Protein backbone atom coordinates (compact mmCIF):
# COMPACT_ATOMS: atom_id res chain seq x y z
CA UNK A 1 0.00 0.00 0.00
CA UNK A 2 1.40 3.41 -0.97
CA UNK A 3 1.04 6.57 1.09
CA UNK A 4 -1.72 8.91 0.03
CA UNK A 5 -0.54 11.58 -2.38
CA UNK A 6 -0.66 15.29 -1.72
CA UNK A 7 -1.78 17.82 -4.31
CA UNK A 8 1.76 19.13 -4.69
CA UNK A 9 2.92 15.63 -5.70
CA UNK A 10 0.52 15.40 -8.62
CA UNK A 11 1.75 15.81 -12.20
CA UNK A 12 -0.84 18.46 -12.92
CA UNK A 13 0.52 20.62 -10.10
CA UNK A 14 3.70 21.05 -12.16
CA UNK A 15 1.62 22.78 -14.79
CA UNK A 16 -0.80 24.68 -12.60
CA UNK A 17 1.00 25.76 -9.41
CA UNK A 18 4.38 27.46 -10.05
CA UNK A 19 4.52 31.22 -9.83
CA UNK A 20 6.14 31.69 -13.23
CA UNK A 21 5.32 32.80 -16.72
CA UNK A 22 4.69 29.31 -18.21
CA UNK A 23 2.23 28.36 -15.48
CA UNK A 24 0.61 31.75 -15.86
CA UNK A 25 -0.12 30.60 -19.42
CA UNK A 26 -1.64 27.29 -18.25
CA UNK A 27 -3.86 29.04 -15.72
CA UNK A 28 -4.93 31.91 -17.95
CA UNK A 29 -5.82 29.52 -20.80
CA UNK A 30 -7.84 27.35 -18.42
CA UNK A 31 -9.68 30.52 -17.41
CA UNK A 32 -10.18 31.27 -21.11
CA UNK A 33 -12.32 28.10 -21.18
CA UNK A 34 -14.54 29.54 -18.45
CA UNK A 35 -13.06 27.88 -15.38
CA UNK A 36 -11.82 29.70 -12.33
CA UNK A 37 -9.05 28.61 -9.94
CA UNK A 38 -11.53 26.92 -7.60
CA UNK A 39 -12.21 24.44 -10.43
CA UNK A 40 -8.66 23.06 -10.43
CA UNK A 41 -6.83 24.10 -7.27
CA UNK A 42 -6.20 21.08 -5.07
CA UNK A 43 -7.91 18.76 -7.57
CA UNK A 44 -6.44 15.98 -9.71
CA UNK A 45 -6.91 16.44 -13.45
CA UNK A 46 -8.57 13.39 -14.95
CA UNK A 47 -8.24 12.69 -18.66
CA UNK A 48 -11.18 11.01 -20.30
CA UNK A 49 -9.93 9.41 -23.50
CA UNK A 50 -13.05 9.28 -25.63
CA UNK A 51 -13.10 7.17 -28.80
CA UNK A 52 -16.40 8.65 -30.00
CA UNK A 53 -16.65 9.72 -33.64
CA UNK A 54 -19.25 10.01 -36.38
CA UNK A 55 -17.59 6.96 -37.96
CA UNK A 56 -17.95 4.72 -34.89
CA UNK A 57 -21.45 3.22 -34.41
CA UNK A 58 -20.32 1.06 -31.48
CA UNK A 59 -19.42 4.19 -29.50
CA UNK A 60 -22.32 6.43 -30.51
CA UNK A 61 -23.39 6.75 -26.87
CA UNK A 62 -19.98 7.97 -25.72
CA UNK A 63 -21.00 11.52 -26.56
CA UNK A 64 -23.57 11.16 -23.80
CA UNK A 65 -21.66 8.81 -21.47
CA UNK A 66 -18.69 11.10 -21.21
CA UNK A 67 -20.95 13.60 -19.43
CA UNK A 68 -21.76 10.92 -16.83
CA UNK A 69 -18.06 10.27 -16.33
CA UNK A 70 -17.41 13.99 -15.87
CA UNK A 71 -20.23 14.12 -13.35
CA UNK A 72 -18.52 11.42 -11.29
CA UNK A 73 -15.13 13.13 -11.52
CA UNK A 74 -16.63 16.41 -10.30
CA UNK A 75 -18.54 14.69 -7.50
CA UNK A 76 -15.30 13.17 -6.22
CA UNK A 77 -13.40 16.47 -6.39
CA UNK A 78 -11.49 16.03 -9.63
CA UNK A 79 -11.21 18.20 -12.73
CA UNK A 80 -12.28 16.31 -15.91
CA UNK A 81 -10.51 16.92 -19.22
CA UNK A 82 -11.99 15.10 -22.22
CA UNK A 83 -9.45 14.21 -24.91
CA UNK A 84 -10.61 12.64 -28.19
CA UNK A 85 -8.75 9.57 -29.39
CA UNK A 86 -8.83 7.48 -32.57
CA UNK A 87 -12.24 5.76 -32.77
CA UNK A 88 -11.17 2.72 -34.85
CA UNK A 89 -14.50 1.50 -36.13
CA UNK A 90 -14.15 -2.15 -37.04
CA UNK A 91 -16.56 -1.75 -39.92
CA UNK A 92 -15.38 1.38 -41.61
CA UNK A 93 -11.61 1.47 -41.20
CA UNK A 94 -9.75 -0.16 -44.11
CA UNK A 95 -7.75 -2.22 -44.79
CA UNK A 96 -8.08 -3.22 -41.13
CA UNK A 97 -8.19 -1.59 -37.70
CA UNK A 98 -5.29 -3.84 -36.74
CA UNK A 99 -3.08 -1.61 -38.84
CA UNK A 100 -3.94 1.20 -36.42
CA UNK A 101 -4.19 -0.50 -33.01
CA UNK A 102 -0.61 0.49 -32.23
CA UNK A 103 -1.29 4.01 -33.47
CA UNK A 104 -4.07 4.30 -30.89
CA UNK A 105 -1.74 2.85 -28.26
CA UNK A 106 0.86 5.48 -29.07
CA UNK A 107 -1.76 8.21 -29.16
CA UNK A 108 -3.13 7.19 -25.76
CA UNK A 109 0.29 7.08 -24.17
CA UNK A 110 1.35 10.42 -25.59
CA UNK A 111 -1.96 12.17 -24.85
CA UNK A 112 -1.51 11.23 -21.22
CA UNK A 113 2.16 12.11 -21.16
CA UNK A 114 1.94 15.47 -22.87
CA UNK A 115 -1.00 16.91 -20.94
CA UNK A 116 -1.29 17.82 -17.24
CA UNK A 117 -2.95 14.51 -16.38
CA UNK A 118 -2.99 12.65 -13.07
CA UNK A 119 -5.29 9.76 -13.93
CA UNK A 120 -7.48 8.60 -16.79
CA UNK A 121 -10.76 6.99 -17.73
CA UNK A 122 -10.42 5.14 -21.03
CA UNK A 123 -13.62 4.84 -23.06
CA UNK A 124 -13.52 2.03 -25.60
CA UNK A 125 -15.15 -1.22 -26.62
CA UNK A 126 -15.04 -1.81 -30.38
CA UNK A 127 -12.43 -4.48 -30.99
CA UNK A 128 -9.03 -2.77 -31.16
CA UNK A 129 -9.93 0.14 -28.92
CA UNK A 130 -9.62 -1.94 -25.74
CA UNK A 131 -6.09 -3.20 -26.36
CA UNK A 132 -5.02 0.06 -28.02
CA UNK A 133 -6.11 2.25 -25.11
CA UNK A 134 -4.90 -0.18 -22.44
CA UNK A 135 -1.49 -0.77 -24.04
CA UNK A 136 -0.80 2.96 -24.19
CA UNK A 137 -2.02 3.63 -20.67
CA UNK A 138 0.00 0.71 -19.29
CA UNK A 139 3.14 2.12 -20.86
CA UNK A 140 2.39 5.56 -19.43
CA UNK A 141 1.84 4.10 -15.97
CA UNK A 142 -0.64 6.62 -14.52
CA UNK A 143 -3.67 5.35 -12.57
CA UNK A 144 -6.43 4.51 -15.03
CA UNK A 145 -9.77 2.79 -15.23
CA UNK A 146 -11.33 1.23 -18.32
CA UNK A 147 -14.93 2.03 -19.20
CA UNK A 148 -16.30 -0.59 -21.63
CA UNK A 149 -18.89 0.54 -24.19
CA UNK A 150 -21.14 -2.42 -23.40
CA UNK A 151 -22.71 -4.77 -25.94
CA UNK A 152 -25.56 -3.63 -28.18
CA UNK A 153 -29.00 -5.22 -27.88
CA UNK A 154 -29.70 -8.60 -29.48
CA UNK A 155 -30.38 -8.40 -33.20
CA UNK A 156 -33.86 -9.28 -34.41
CA UNK A 157 -35.24 -10.46 -37.72
CA UNK A 158 -38.47 -12.35 -38.27
CA UNK A 159 -38.65 -13.09 -34.56
CA UNK A 160 -35.17 -14.61 -34.51
CA UNK A 161 -32.28 -13.34 -32.41
CA UNK A 162 -29.43 -12.28 -34.65
CA UNK A 163 -25.80 -12.18 -33.57
CA UNK A 164 -23.32 -9.57 -34.83
CA UNK A 165 -20.97 -10.91 -37.43
CA UNK A 166 -21.88 -14.54 -36.84
CA UNK A 167 -25.28 -14.31 -38.49
CA UNK A 168 -23.98 -11.95 -41.17
CA UNK A 169 -21.47 -14.64 -42.20
CA UNK A 170 -24.02 -17.44 -41.86
CA UNK A 171 -26.77 -15.78 -43.90
CA UNK A 172 -24.31 -14.55 -46.53
CA UNK A 173 -23.35 -18.16 -47.21
CA UNK A 174 -27.08 -18.93 -47.54
CA UNK A 175 -27.51 -15.94 -49.87
CA UNK A 176 -24.63 -17.18 -52.02
CA UNK A 177 -26.15 -20.65 -51.95
CA UNK A 178 -29.44 -19.09 -53.12
CA UNK A 179 -31.49 -20.22 -50.11
CA UNK A 180 -32.61 -16.74 -48.96
CA UNK A 181 -34.09 -13.91 -51.01
CA UNK A 182 -32.88 -10.34 -51.48
CA UNK A 183 -35.81 -9.09 -49.35
CA UNK A 184 -34.92 -11.45 -46.53
CA UNK A 185 -31.30 -10.36 -46.75
CA UNK A 186 -32.39 -6.70 -46.47
CA UNK A 187 -34.51 -7.56 -43.42
CA UNK A 188 -31.44 -9.04 -41.76
CA UNK A 189 -29.44 -5.94 -42.70
CA UNK A 190 -31.90 -3.69 -40.88
CA UNK A 191 -32.27 -5.90 -37.81
CA UNK A 192 -28.81 -7.15 -36.97
CA UNK A 193 -27.55 -3.95 -35.26
CA UNK A 194 -30.43 -2.36 -33.33
CA UNK A 195 -28.73 -0.10 -30.80
CA UNK A 196 -25.45 1.56 -29.92
CA UNK A 197 -22.84 -0.63 -28.26
CA UNK A 198 -20.28 -3.11 -29.50
CA UNK A 199 -20.98 -6.47 -31.16
CA UNK A 200 -23.11 -8.66 -28.91
CA UNK A 201 -21.70 -12.06 -29.77
CA UNK A 202 -18.65 -13.29 -27.87
CA UNK A 203 -16.50 -11.71 -30.55
CA UNK A 204 -13.36 -9.69 -30.12
CA UNK A 205 -15.09 -6.72 -28.47
CA UNK A 206 -16.88 -8.77 -25.78
CA UNK A 207 -13.79 -10.88 -25.25
CA UNK A 208 -11.47 -7.91 -24.88
CA UNK A 209 -13.70 -6.03 -22.45
CA UNK A 210 -14.01 -9.27 -20.43
CA UNK A 211 -10.22 -9.54 -20.47
CA UNK A 212 -9.90 -5.93 -19.29
CA UNK A 213 -12.26 -6.72 -16.41
CA UNK A 214 -10.48 -9.98 -15.52
CA UNK A 215 -7.16 -8.11 -15.54
CA UNK A 216 -8.63 -5.81 -12.91
CA UNK A 217 -8.89 -2.73 -15.11
CA UNK A 218 -12.66 -2.10 -14.86
CA UNK A 219 -15.13 -1.79 -12.04
CA UNK A 220 -16.56 -5.21 -11.08
CA UNK A 221 -19.20 -6.33 -13.56
CA UNK A 222 -18.68 -3.36 -15.89
CA UNK A 223 -17.96 -5.30 -19.07
CA UNK A 224 -21.30 -7.14 -19.19
CA UNK A 225 -23.68 -4.18 -18.86
CA UNK A 226 -25.52 -3.64 -22.17
CA UNK A 227 -24.83 -0.22 -23.65
CA UNK A 228 -28.53 0.65 -23.65
CA UNK A 229 -29.09 -0.30 -19.99
CA UNK A 230 -29.39 2.54 -17.45
CA UNK A 231 -26.81 0.67 -15.42
CA UNK A 232 -24.30 1.78 -18.01
CA UNK A 233 -24.82 5.43 -17.11
CA UNK A 234 -24.45 4.61 -13.44
CA UNK A 235 -21.27 2.66 -14.10
CA UNK A 236 -19.91 5.61 -16.12
CA UNK A 237 -20.40 7.95 -13.17
CA UNK A 238 -18.85 5.42 -10.81
CA UNK A 239 -15.76 5.29 -13.05
CA UNK A 240 -15.48 9.07 -12.76
CA UNK A 241 -15.73 8.94 -8.98
CA UNK A 242 -13.36 6.03 -8.54
CA UNK A 243 -10.51 7.36 -10.69
CA UNK A 244 -10.17 10.42 -8.49
CA UNK A 245 -9.64 8.22 -5.45
CA UNK A 246 -7.23 6.04 -7.41
CA UNK A 247 -5.07 9.11 -8.06
CA UNK A 248 -4.92 10.00 -4.36
CA UNK A 249 -4.20 6.34 -3.53
CA UNK A 250 -1.55 6.26 -6.28
CA UNK A 251 -3.04 2.97 -7.46
CA UNK A 252 -0.89 2.61 -10.57
CA UNK A 253 -1.37 -0.14 -13.18
CA UNK A 254 1.81 -1.99 -12.20
CA UNK A 255 0.03 -2.86 -8.93
CA UNK A 256 -2.93 -4.27 -10.85
CA UNK A 257 -1.56 -5.93 -13.99
CA UNK A 258 0.66 -8.53 -12.34
CA UNK A 259 1.46 -12.06 -13.57
CA UNK A 260 -1.51 -13.29 -11.49
CA UNK A 261 -3.83 -10.77 -13.15
CA UNK A 262 -2.66 -11.78 -16.63
CA UNK A 263 -3.21 -15.45 -15.77
CA UNK A 264 -6.72 -14.59 -14.58
CA UNK A 265 -7.36 -12.73 -17.83
CA UNK A 266 -6.25 -15.73 -19.89
CA UNK A 267 -8.39 -18.10 -17.80
CA UNK A 268 -11.48 -15.93 -18.19
CA UNK A 269 -10.82 -15.45 -21.91
CA UNK A 270 -10.64 -19.22 -22.41
CA UNK A 271 -13.80 -19.80 -20.39
CA UNK A 272 -15.73 -17.24 -22.45
CA UNK A 273 -14.97 -19.05 -25.72
CA UNK A 274 -12.91 -16.08 -26.69
CA UNK A 275 -12.07 -14.60 -30.04
CA UNK A 276 -8.82 -15.75 -31.64
CA UNK A 277 -7.83 -12.09 -31.81
CA UNK A 278 -7.65 -12.12 -28.02
CA UNK A 279 -4.41 -14.07 -28.21
CA UNK A 280 -2.58 -11.31 -30.05
CA UNK A 281 -3.95 -8.54 -27.85
CA UNK A 282 -3.41 -10.42 -24.59
CA UNK A 283 0.22 -11.01 -25.46
CA UNK A 284 0.70 -7.36 -26.44
CA UNK A 285 -1.04 -6.02 -23.32
CA UNK A 286 0.83 -8.36 -20.97
CA UNK A 287 4.15 -7.44 -22.52
CA UNK A 288 3.42 -3.73 -22.07
CA UNK A 289 3.04 -4.58 -18.38
CA UNK A 290 6.42 -6.34 -18.45
CA UNK A 291 4.98 -9.87 -18.36
CA UNK A 292 6.39 -12.15 -21.07
CA UNK A 293 3.20 -14.02 -21.97
CA UNK A 294 3.82 -16.70 -24.64
CA UNK A 295 1.53 -18.66 -26.95
CA UNK A 296 2.44 -21.79 -25.00
CA UNK A 297 1.13 -20.18 -21.78
CA UNK A 298 -2.19 -19.58 -23.50
CA UNK A 299 -2.35 -23.18 -24.70
CA UNK A 300 -1.41 -24.48 -21.23
CA UNK A 301 -4.15 -22.50 -19.52
CA UNK A 302 -6.58 -23.30 -22.33
CA UNK A 303 -6.12 -27.05 -21.85
CA UNK A 304 -7.35 -26.85 -18.25
CA UNK A 305 -10.10 -24.25 -18.69
CA UNK A 306 -13.37 -25.36 -20.29
CA UNK A 307 -15.57 -23.00 -22.26
CA UNK A 308 -18.50 -22.27 -19.93
CA UNK A 309 -20.06 -19.18 -21.55
CA UNK A 310 -22.72 -20.57 -23.86
CA UNK A 311 -22.61 -17.55 -26.14
CA UNK A 312 -22.43 -17.51 -29.92
CA UNK A 313 -20.30 -18.28 -31.86
CA UNK A 314 -19.04 -21.06 -29.51
CA UNK A 315 -22.58 -21.60 -28.17
CA UNK A 316 -25.61 -22.12 -30.35
CA UNK A 317 -28.25 -19.81 -28.93
CA UNK A 318 -27.39 -17.02 -26.53
CA UNK A 319 -25.95 -13.53 -26.92
CA UNK A 320 -24.35 -10.97 -24.58
CA UNK A 321 -27.71 -9.63 -23.42
CA UNK A 322 -28.54 -13.15 -22.18
CA UNK A 323 -25.12 -13.31 -20.57
CA UNK A 324 -25.87 -10.14 -18.59
CA UNK A 325 -29.26 -11.42 -17.46
CA UNK A 326 -27.62 -14.69 -16.39
CA UNK A 327 -25.25 -12.82 -14.07
CA UNK A 328 -22.56 -11.50 -16.41
CA UNK A 329 -18.83 -11.89 -16.11
CA UNK A 330 -18.86 -11.94 -12.30
CA UNK A 331 -21.10 -15.01 -12.44
CA UNK A 332 -18.71 -16.66 -14.90
CA UNK A 333 -15.85 -15.89 -12.50
CA UNK A 334 -17.83 -17.48 -9.70
CA UNK A 335 -18.22 -20.66 -11.76
CA UNK A 336 -14.45 -20.70 -12.32
CA UNK A 337 -13.91 -20.99 -8.55
CA UNK A 338 -10.32 -21.62 -7.56
CA UNK A 339 -9.11 -21.42 -11.15
CA UNK A 340 -8.76 -17.70 -10.48
CA UNK A 341 -5.81 -16.34 -8.57
CA UNK A 342 -7.10 -14.41 -5.55
CA UNK A 343 -3.92 -12.39 -5.13
CA UNK A 344 -4.73 -10.13 -8.09
CA UNK A 345 -6.44 -6.84 -7.32
CA UNK A 346 -8.61 -4.52 -9.42
CA UNK A 347 -9.07 -0.78 -9.79
CA UNK A 348 -11.09 -0.98 -6.58
CA UNK A 349 -7.88 -1.85 -4.73
CA UNK A 350 -9.52 -5.09 -3.62
CA UNK A 351 -9.03 -8.68 -4.85
CA UNK A 352 -10.74 -9.65 -8.10
CA UNK A 353 -12.28 -12.62 -6.34
CA UNK A 354 -13.66 -10.64 -3.39
CA UNK A 355 -17.44 -10.91 -3.18
CA UNK A 356 -17.76 -13.70 -5.73
CA UNK A 357 -19.30 -15.93 -3.04
CA UNK A 358 -22.30 -13.57 -2.98
CA UNK A 359 -22.72 -13.53 -6.78
CA UNK A 360 -25.64 -15.50 -8.22
CA UNK A 361 -25.78 -17.42 -11.48
CA UNK A 362 -29.32 -16.82 -12.71
CA UNK A 363 -29.24 -19.15 -15.68
CA UNK A 364 -26.76 -22.01 -15.69
CA UNK A 365 -27.51 -22.92 -19.28
CA UNK A 366 -26.04 -19.56 -20.34
CA UNK A 367 -23.20 -19.56 -17.78
CA UNK A 368 -22.49 -23.22 -17.31
CA UNK A 369 -20.91 -24.92 -14.29
CA UNK A 370 -17.48 -26.49 -14.89
CA UNK A 371 -19.19 -29.88 -14.75
CA UNK A 372 -21.34 -29.09 -17.81
CA UNK A 373 -19.17 -27.06 -20.19
CA UNK A 374 -19.93 -25.99 -23.74
CA UNK A 375 -16.55 -27.38 -24.72
CA UNK A 376 -14.28 -29.48 -22.53
CA UNK A 377 -11.16 -27.36 -23.15
CA UNK A 378 -10.53 -23.66 -23.56
CA UNK A 379 -11.51 -21.74 -26.60
CA UNK A 380 -8.23 -21.71 -28.46
CA UNK A 381 -5.57 -24.21 -29.44
CA UNK A 382 -2.03 -23.36 -30.49
CA UNK A 383 -0.65 -25.46 -33.35
CA UNK A 384 3.01 -25.89 -34.21
CA UNK A 385 4.82 -27.80 -36.92
CA UNK A 386 6.75 -27.28 -40.13
CA UNK A 387 4.04 -24.93 -41.42
CA UNK A 388 3.96 -22.80 -38.28
CA UNK A 389 7.19 -23.10 -36.27
CA UNK A 390 6.23 -20.05 -34.20
CA UNK A 391 2.62 -21.11 -33.86
CA UNK A 392 -0.83 -20.85 -35.41
CA UNK A 393 -4.21 -20.81 -33.68
CA UNK A 394 -7.59 -22.41 -34.18
CA UNK A 395 -10.86 -22.23 -32.29
CA UNK A 396 -11.83 -25.90 -31.94
CA UNK A 397 -15.09 -25.12 -30.16
CA UNK A 398 -16.35 -23.18 -33.18
CA UNK A 399 -15.66 -25.80 -35.86
CA UNK A 400 -17.09 -29.16 -36.81
CA UNK A 401 -15.29 -31.81 -34.66
CA UNK A 402 -14.71 -33.95 -37.77
CA UNK A 403 -12.03 -31.43 -38.76
CA UNK A 404 -10.11 -31.73 -35.49
CA UNK A 405 -7.95 -34.31 -37.27
CA UNK A 406 -7.73 -33.70 -40.99
CA UNK A 407 -5.47 -34.40 -43.95
CA UNK A 408 -6.06 -32.89 -47.37
CA UNK A 409 -4.49 -31.26 -50.43
CA UNK A 410 -3.67 -27.55 -50.28
CA UNK A 411 -5.29 -25.11 -52.68
CA UNK A 412 -3.18 -21.96 -52.39
CA UNK A 413 -4.09 -18.34 -53.16
CA UNK A 414 -1.39 -15.69 -52.97
CA UNK A 415 -3.79 -12.77 -52.56
CA UNK A 416 -7.39 -12.06 -51.63
CA UNK A 417 -8.14 -11.23 -55.28
CA UNK A 418 -6.88 -14.64 -56.35
CA UNK A 419 -8.85 -16.27 -53.55
CA UNK A 420 -12.04 -14.61 -54.74
CA UNK A 421 -11.72 -16.14 -58.18
CA UNK A 422 -11.51 -19.55 -56.49
CA UNK A 423 -14.40 -19.17 -54.06
CA UNK A 424 -16.75 -17.51 -56.55
CA UNK A 425 -16.35 -20.16 -59.25
CA UNK A 426 -19.06 -22.82 -58.77
CA UNK A 427 -17.06 -25.25 -60.86
CA UNK A 428 -13.60 -24.74 -59.36
CA UNK A 429 -12.06 -28.18 -58.89
CA UNK A 430 -11.86 -29.09 -55.20
CA UNK A 431 -13.11 -31.69 -52.75
CA UNK A 432 -14.44 -31.53 -49.17
CA UNK A 433 -10.94 -32.58 -48.07
CA UNK A 434 -9.28 -29.60 -49.77
CA UNK A 435 -7.41 -27.21 -47.45
CA UNK A 436 -8.02 -23.72 -48.79
CA UNK A 437 -5.00 -21.49 -48.14
CA UNK A 438 -4.62 -17.73 -48.23
CA UNK A 439 -1.16 -16.28 -47.75
CA UNK A 440 0.44 -12.83 -47.79
CA UNK A 441 -2.26 -11.73 -45.34
CA UNK A 442 -0.17 -11.47 -42.16
CA UNK A 443 1.06 -8.44 -40.18
CA UNK A 444 3.28 -7.19 -43.03
CA UNK A 445 1.64 -8.96 -45.94
CA UNK A 446 -1.97 -7.88 -45.33
CA UNK A 447 -0.84 -5.31 -44.44
CA UNK A 448 -2.00 -5.21 -40.84
CA UNK A 449 -3.17 -8.82 -40.71
CA UNK A 450 -6.75 -8.25 -41.88
CA UNK A 451 -9.67 -10.42 -40.79
CA UNK A 452 -9.63 -12.48 -43.96
CA UNK A 453 -9.00 -15.77 -42.17
CA UNK A 454 -12.62 -16.90 -42.15
CA UNK A 455 -12.38 -17.52 -45.86
CA UNK A 456 -15.92 -17.68 -47.29
CA UNK A 457 -17.01 -21.16 -48.25
CA UNK A 458 -16.36 -21.73 -51.98
CA UNK A 459 -19.45 -21.90 -54.18
CA UNK A 460 -18.19 -25.24 -55.50
CA UNK A 461 -18.73 -26.78 -52.04
CA UNK A 462 -21.75 -24.68 -51.03
CA UNK A 463 -23.70 -26.10 -53.96
CA UNK A 464 -22.95 -29.56 -52.61
CA UNK A 465 -24.54 -28.58 -49.30
CA UNK A 466 -21.26 -28.18 -47.38
CA UNK A 467 -20.88 -25.34 -44.85
CA UNK A 468 -17.41 -25.93 -43.38
CA UNK A 469 -13.94 -26.97 -44.58
CA UNK A 470 -10.37 -26.54 -43.35
CA UNK A 471 -9.05 -23.10 -44.20
CA UNK A 472 -5.57 -21.85 -43.43
CA UNK A 473 -3.95 -18.42 -43.46
CA UNK A 474 -1.56 -16.01 -41.81
CA UNK A 475 -4.50 -13.60 -41.41
CA UNK A 476 -6.79 -13.11 -38.41
CA UNK A 477 -10.52 -13.66 -38.40
CA UNK A 478 -13.32 -11.76 -36.75
CA UNK A 479 -14.06 -12.95 -33.24
CA UNK A 480 -17.64 -13.46 -34.35
CA UNK A 481 -16.54 -15.98 -36.97
CA UNK A 482 -16.73 -19.74 -36.89
CA UNK A 483 -15.47 -22.71 -38.87
CA UNK A 484 -12.36 -24.86 -39.21
CA UNK A 485 -10.06 -21.87 -39.80
CA UNK A 486 -6.38 -22.09 -38.90
CA UNK A 487 -5.09 -18.56 -38.38
CA UNK A 488 -2.10 -16.41 -37.41
CA UNK A 489 0.43 -18.77 -39.04
CA UNK A 490 3.81 -17.49 -37.86
CA UNK A 491 6.15 -16.47 -39.24
CA UNK A 492 3.92 -15.10 -41.99
CA UNK A 493 4.52 -15.97 -45.64
CA UNK A 494 5.32 -12.38 -46.67
CA UNK A 495 8.54 -12.44 -44.63
CA UNK A 496 9.45 -15.93 -45.82
CA UNK A 497 7.73 -18.14 -43.23
CA UNK A 498 7.32 -21.79 -44.33
CA UNK A 499 3.78 -21.02 -45.52
CA UNK A 500 5.48 -19.22 -48.43
CA UNK A 501 6.87 -22.59 -49.56
CA UNK A 502 3.54 -24.46 -49.68
CA UNK A 503 2.27 -25.42 -53.15
CA UNK A 504 -1.16 -26.37 -54.40
CA UNK A 505 -1.49 -30.15 -54.13
CA UNK A 506 0.84 -30.53 -51.11
CA UNK A 507 -0.83 -32.51 -48.33
CA UNK A 508 -1.54 -30.50 -45.17
CA UNK A 509 -2.07 -32.36 -41.90
CA UNK A 510 -3.99 -30.75 -39.04
CA UNK A 511 -4.10 -32.50 -35.68
CA UNK A 512 -5.74 -30.38 -32.97
CA UNK A 513 -5.55 -32.96 -30.14
CA UNK A 514 -1.78 -33.15 -30.72
CA UNK A 515 -1.53 -29.42 -31.47
CA UNK A 516 0.28 -29.93 -34.77
CA UNK A 517 0.15 -28.40 -38.24
CA UNK A 518 2.40 -29.77 -40.97
CA UNK A 519 2.84 -29.94 -44.70
CA UNK A 520 3.86 -33.43 -45.69
CA UNK A 521 6.71 -32.29 -47.90
CA UNK A 522 10.26 -33.68 -47.46
CA UNK A 523 12.82 -31.33 -45.89
CA UNK A 524 15.09 -31.55 -48.95
CA UNK A 525 12.26 -30.37 -51.20
CA UNK A 526 11.48 -27.50 -48.82
CA UNK A 527 15.16 -26.51 -48.83
CA UNK A 528 15.07 -26.33 -52.65
CA UNK A 529 11.93 -24.23 -52.60
CA UNK A 530 13.55 -21.95 -50.00
CA UNK A 531 16.46 -21.28 -52.35
CA UNK A 532 14.18 -20.06 -55.10
CA UNK A 533 11.87 -17.97 -52.85
CA UNK A 534 12.14 -14.21 -53.39
CA UNK A 535 10.81 -11.64 -50.90
CA UNK A 536 7.91 -9.60 -52.28
CA UNK A 537 8.43 -5.91 -53.03
CA UNK A 538 7.90 -3.57 -50.04
CA UNK A 539 4.33 -2.30 -49.79
CA UNK A 540 5.13 1.19 -48.51
CA UNK A 541 7.70 3.84 -49.38
CA UNK A 542 6.58 6.46 -46.87
CA UNK A 543 4.14 7.35 -44.13
CA UNK A 544 2.59 5.39 -41.30
CA UNK A 545 2.50 2.20 -43.40
CA UNK A 546 6.27 2.47 -43.85
CA UNK A 547 6.82 2.82 -40.11
CA UNK A 548 4.39 -0.07 -39.51
CA UNK A 549 6.13 -2.42 -41.92
CA UNK A 550 9.56 -1.62 -40.49
CA UNK A 551 8.61 -2.22 -36.87
CA UNK A 552 5.63 -4.58 -36.62
CA UNK A 553 6.32 -7.85 -34.80
CA UNK A 554 4.83 -11.22 -35.70
CA UNK A 555 1.53 -12.54 -34.35
CA UNK A 556 3.10 -14.75 -31.69
CA UNK A 557 4.73 -11.63 -30.21
CA UNK A 558 1.47 -9.67 -30.14
CA UNK A 559 2.03 -7.51 -33.24
CA UNK A 560 3.38 -4.62 -31.18
CA UNK A 561 5.99 -2.25 -32.56
CA UNK A 562 9.48 -3.39 -31.60
CA UNK A 563 10.43 0.10 -30.37
CA UNK A 564 7.55 0.20 -27.89
CA UNK A 565 8.75 -2.80 -25.91
CA UNK A 566 8.85 -2.45 -22.16
CA UNK A 567 12.44 -3.78 -22.18
CA UNK A 568 13.54 -0.39 -23.48
CA UNK A 569 12.52 1.05 -20.11
CA UNK A 570 10.05 3.74 -19.18
CA UNK A 571 10.05 6.93 -21.18
CA UNK A 572 11.05 9.95 -19.12
CA UNK A 573 7.96 11.63 -17.74
CA UNK A 574 8.94 15.19 -18.57
CA UNK A 575 7.77 17.82 -16.14
CA UNK A 576 6.22 20.94 -17.60
CA UNK A 577 9.27 22.81 -18.89
CA UNK A 578 9.31 26.38 -17.75
FE1 LIG B 1 -17.51 -2.53 -33.21
FE2 LIG B 1 -17.98 -5.24 -33.73
S1 LIG B 1 -18.00 -3.51 -35.09
S2 LIG B 1 -17.44 -4.25 -31.91
Automatic annotation (TrEMBL):
Residues annotated as domain Dihydroxy-acid/6-phosphogluconate dehydratase C-terminal: 365-559
Gene Ontology terms for molecular function: dihydroxy-acid dehydratase activity; iron-sulfur cluster binding; metal ion binding
One family name in Pfam for this protein: ILVD_EDD_N
InterPro entries in UniProt: Dihydro-acid_dehy_C, DiOHA_6PGluconate_deHydtase_CS, ILV_EDD_C, ILV_EDD_N, IlvD/EDD_N, Sugar_Degrad_Dehydratases
Gene3D superfamilies assigned to the protein according to its UniProt record, in alphabetical order: IlvD/EDD C-terminal domain-like
Domain Dihydroxy-acid/6-phosphogluconate dehydratase N-terminal: 43-354
SUPFAM superfamilies, per the entry: IlvD/EDD N-terminal domain-like, LeuD/IlvD-like
Residues making up the signal peptide according to the UniProt record: none
Family according to the record: Belongs to the IlvD/Edd family.
Name listed for the protein in its UniProt record: Dihydroxy-acid dehydratase 4
Organism field: Rhizobium gallicum bv. gallicum R602sp
